[in-house]
Amino acid sequence: MSPDLIDPSERNTHREDGDLADGLRRRDPLAMEILYERLGRQAFGLAYRILGDGPSAEDAVQEALLTVWRQADRIDAARGRLNSFVLTLVHHKAIDALRVKRGQQARQISVDFAEVEKVGADFSERVLQSIASGEVRAALTRLPEEQRRPIEMAYYEGLTHLEIAAALDLPLGTVKSRLRLGLEKLRVALRAGSGDELRRS
What we know:
Layout: H1 8-25, H2 29-51, H3 54-70, H4 82-101, H5 113-119, H6 121-133, H7 135-140, H8 145-155, H9 161-168, H10 172-192, H11 196-200
Helix pairs in contact: 1-2, 2-3, 2-4, 2-6, 3-4, 4-6, 6-10, 8-10, 9-10
């Protein structure tokens, strides 16, 4: 895409992400302060929606930010949005904590910009921000049950596709198809800022 075709606000975001990533790679404490000011509230809200209590949510956010600090040299803001990367990391940390609470083994999934990029940085960030705000919860209630339940089990309960298939007594392919269809409906609804698309589906 030509630079002339990039939205000015998007160009500013990429430049700010690049500056912040540079600061993190230099291990500049001010960069971490700026990152926390930018995402702290959203990150806590996301973790709290999953874990249900403040101390556990705070721990998940701290673990995520500590991982960012330790692995700052791997951050490449040119490959994805910094917000998406951090919120995805918080989500995984919260899910790991939830699994431990339930006596399950944490999955310790590695998160990097390449993973966020595969999902689609803008959509990944939008979904995770919406989970934190409760917007996804509202949209989920308008999805058909067979699509809503697998999404809840994956995003809020931390189950793998195989675990969802076993719990719902469904073939793995069916679970993946329902997740894809449900997430696509959420994508459309969240971009439009309305649940009308879900009700028409």
